[in-house]
Amino acid sequence: MDKINIKNLEVFANHGVFPEENKLGQKFVVSATLFTETREAGLRDDLTKSIHYGEVSQFITKFLQEHTYMLIETVAEQLAKALLLETGNLEGVRLEIQKPWAPVGLPLETVSVEIERGWHTAYLALGSSMGDKKAYLDQAVEAMNGVEGCRVERVSDWISTEPYGGVAENTFLNGAMVVRTLLTPQELLEKLHEIERAAGRERLVHWGDRTLDIDILMYDDLVLDTETLQIPHIEMQKRDFVLVPLAEIAPYKRHPILGKTVLQLKEELEK
What we know:
Distance between the termini: 39 Å
Helix content: 25-40%
CATH architecture of the largest domain: 2-Layer Sandwich
Order of helices and strands: EHEHHHEEEHEEEHEEEHH
CATH class of the largest domain: Alpha Beta
Number of domains: 2
Number of strands: 11
Structural class: alpha+beta
Low-confidence stretches: none
Mean pLDDT: 94
Shape: elongated
Largest sheet: 5 strands, antiparallel
């Protein structure tokens, strides 16, 4: 991806662990790499198709001066989030926050924190088998859009399916959605559990009936295996109630392990 670099922007601001740092302030030096696509802007000579680095520099300066944090780690994290939420055409950002002459009682030139953050694409499956199923699914989409750092891009039609796993008794209403997110997979999972709990979800019986179930199917091309989360979802290629709605909105998304598109997996399951 193309990059626009802002190097060594000097900002006088008030950040630090010691009270004197927050009162008196000091100089911070910020470098930012903005990840975006510049080809269309370059071919058309059109700034609206790129990112205005002057406006970004002003944004960085204002943000550092209007906020006060103890840690430069927090400065970097919050600034990166604000830039990604507020700057059009920005796909990712790498930030370095330098704190010259940090008060550590030793002759050092500077200390700095460098992070890289960006937008990710998550593919989610939704299901409900209790109560007003459509209302639960519609509310889940609305709740997802209300999570800071999440934007619902596409939602499938809801489809009626038979229960899976031999435990649930009611028919399900299922669907899928594509979400752009700044959250990590674990942070996203925690938000999904909050949305499920708000819908009255109780995890009493595995594969049992539930008001709302939301699963992470894929997250970019990530392969992840932890105690609480497996990506891609280990059962997705076996479930038509997942593949049918997902193929509607992301047919050519490729499974990062199997190497096949969602549409190919769906067609194989239907044979």
